[in-house]
Description:
By secondary structure, the chain is an alpha/beta fold. The chain is 33% helix and 22% strand. Strands 7-8-9-3-10-11-13-12 form an 8-stranded mixed β-sheet, with helices on both faces. Strands 1, 2, 4, 5 and 6 form a 5-stranded antiparallel β-sheet that branches. It starts with a strand and ends with a helix.
Amino acid sequence: MSQLLGIRGLRTTFPTRHGLVRAVDGIDLDVRPGECLGVVGESGSGKSVTFLSVLGLVRPPGKVEAEAITFQGRNLLSLAPTEIRAIRGRDIAVTMQDALTALNPAFTVETQIVETIEAHEPGIAKGEARARAIEMLRLVGIPDAERRLASYPHQFSGGMRQRVMVAIALACRPKLLIADEPTTALDVTIQSQVLDLIDDMRVRLGMSVVLITHDLGIVAERCDRVAVMYAGQVVETGPTAEVVAAPIHPYTRGLLRSMPSLAHLDEPLVPIDGTVPDPTRLSDGCRFLPRCPHAVEVCARPVGLRAVTAERAARCILAEVAR
């Protein structure tokens, strides 16, 4: 199947006084045209850093290395910074975790949307850019869009700020939207509205979406495929329905067991024992080994992402058993 974005052998490191942090360590991942890919894992698993690396947003002393990062067949690693900047925001857009801090409090919503449009369409008339800004606010469901253009971020509620950020991200009709924890700090009702909005925009614009979250429940409900990350690596990937119904990696199983179920309200939640490993002291073997109830001696050896079927893969010796 064709791919919109292809990531191979991505590694991102940060030097610290305690040692080298391997935030992302050997990521292979594809995003297909028109799909919603869920990227799920605990805080610190490398989800956000993976896509910041793809977008060229990791600043020194952070170091990004990869065998290949391709977008629509173009190798992003071979492009000049100005060419990457042209793709970022126009073809690949991103919404950050907290809209209140991501939006500039000193500028109106109009300024921030129009600025994005003008940056990627230099010849556009001011009036046309403003008209599109109004159209985008209406598209994301903000009432009285023309009047609200003059508002500042603090004059919107949390859910409306999230909608504004989506409007900015979609202003140039991107082919890929990276939504990084788009429901952070929102109540359940507003979370659903924001996710519905992203779903609707994906269908309307025919774009792909990467939904980064720590909530496997959201992924199960919204995403076509899922990539489960742990300690800087993808540990399981495949069609969401299959992964949720029959997880292979013990970490994926642990995530599912720790989720509340409406069908089994009387059953206690089962937390995953232990803690995420120190990113400066990662082993070459399975990184989930210290927390895994199925660990055996061979788990201390390096293990790659193993294909289980044409659509599924897992970084675990249990993948051999599942074949």
